[in-house]
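## retry 2 of 3
previous attempt timed out at serialization; input unchanged, resubmitting
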Amino acid sequence: MSAITEYVRLRPHELTKLRSLLVDDPDEACEYAGDLRMGDEDEEVSSRGTDTDKAWPCLQYLLAKAGASIEVIGGGEPVTDDVWGYDSPRLLTVDDVATASRFLDATPFDVLAQHFDPAELASANVQPDIWAEDWALSYLQDYYGHLVWLFHAAATDREPILVWLD
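## retry succeeded, writing output
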């Protein structure tokens, strides 16, 4: 499985432009969102977006086990029927982002790690098949940190987040 979940925070004018592009030029809409996710060339790390690499299925599983009230991996409302990579892009509203951020801010990775059991993950067919590796937990922690940071920043700025599986 080579799919990764991508995220980008959207300012009001960016969301307006994206919605227009989705009608006028769907391919350009995907490229526009991808460019926003990457941020400025001068930034070492984008302040506008992130991805979860291949950690997303396990993070999704662990977040569900921890009782997350908002699905930050596969949630949100589709903004188009067009497929970007593996699915249609979805929008987590400002309220969704705020709710998710409160949960993520209040949930240190140690809480998720309590639910991390490589045998259980294998039994549940949580891909990719890497969870028994020595580095798997730190890999998940790193990408969880990216999610916490992004959702906190978007909630602080009252921005929605666009999510898609690429």
